[in-house]
Amino acid sequence: MLSIGYFALRLPWLFSLPLMEAPDEANHLWVTQFLAQHWRAASWTEISQAGSIAVYGPLSPFGYLPNAIFAYSFLDSENFRLASRLGTLFAGLPTLLIALALGRTLFARSAFLAVMLPLLVMVHPQLIFTQSYTNTDALVTSLSSLAIYLSIELINKRASSLKSALIGLVLALAALAKSNSLCLVPAVAFAIWSACQIQTLPIRQFWKMLASFALTLAASCGWFFVRNYFEFGGDILGSKTMYKIWEKSLEHKDGKAILPWPAVTKLAWWRFVFFDFWGLFGFMNRYLWRPFYFVFLGLCVTAGVGNWLSSKNSSPDSTEIEQKKETAIWRFLIMCAAINFLAVFYVTASGLSGPHGRYLFPSELPLLALILRGFSGLGEQRQKYCALLLLATCLLASCTGFSTYYLGHSWRQ
């Protein structure tokens, strides 16, 4: 049923969203088409010959692999863009399924909260929008969510070097899809440390597991960053080269590019991140009805209060080892969200990108889980009211956003 709801909410967007309402989709499609034709990353010569349309060419093309697979048979067809969008749609589906499993793990004592986590993923307005056109966010969210789930399983169950290596592999694939997922590395290291502490494993086992994770991660994605180092003159991630290409399209004053986003010292920056996480469509210029943002803000503040109250109480039915595991897991999730936010702050402060809330999607599940945990600290009745209000607000915001901006439009436009 969740999968049906997932497709039912996203397919109307996929078929209706015009090209010029999908952020940089033409640029994403260039990489998708190049990958479907050559099945490799583009060289600097090929990127420079293509011009500004190839602005994402210096980045890893792995995030476009689902799009290229779906669109491969339509290379010379007008349906290429539609087929590519289907790749994004299916790349995002595992996030929903992982949320279902994670909800059962985090909220084992509450069937209501356990099912609310995947339901929120299903109706999250910005996630619906992002999973409806060609981009890399859908795949990186799914792979990051899987790495987070496996890290929690490492804490909950018997830890081993093999499991650590598996997390390293998944996170490496996430990094190849989009490098902002690397912000999860410190949190995973914390999860490995916590697992060893709780399970009273010797210190040498911790170092062995950490090495297994780090070496697998480095071996699985490091080769591409080494390739970029030589291809783009020391630009390991390719982001600086991408920025130089994009910068040419901006207005300049006194020889400097005028960036189209507010500085991190301005309130507008924080507001933009918040809006873009919950729902901001088009080229970040199609806003939800303003009261929706106030409801989201109020519920987030309420969840923060609830989390503070929850931190003061422990479950009387839990054993000491269960309490240690629970504490470690929630600290791990907080680290995922906090470091992810710091990464968003850094890229804006360094001028490489804007205050995009969707860059928090590697921590989509931790953020939603922390909100639900906050509601649980308010009592059983209030938690239901708050969770259902958040669910209803997301669903209503998604539907009204679509009907206001895209109903009656077509992907062919």
Overall tally of domains: 1
**Number of extended strands:** 4
Q: How far is the N terminus from the C terminus? A: 32 Å
Biggest pleated sheet: 2 strands, antiparallel
Q: Helical proportion?
A: 55-70%
Note the topology.
Layout: H1 2-16, H2 25-38, H3 44-50, H4 65-71, H5 80-106, H6 111-123, H7 125-130, H8 137-156, H9 161-177, H10 185-198, H11 203-231, H12 239-247, E1 252-253, E2 256-257, H13 267-278, E3 280-281, E4 286-287, H14 290-311, H15 320-349, H16 364-376, H17 380-405
Antiparallel strand pairs: 1-2, 3-4
Explain the overall architecture.
The chain is mostly helical. The protein has one domain. Helix content is 68%, strand content 2%. It has 17 helices and 4 strands. The two termini are 32 Å apart. The mean pLDDT is 92.
Salient structural properties:
globular, two-stranded antiparallel sheet, 413 residues, 2% strand, mainly alpha
Give a quick summary of the entry.
With 413 residues, the protein is mostly helical.
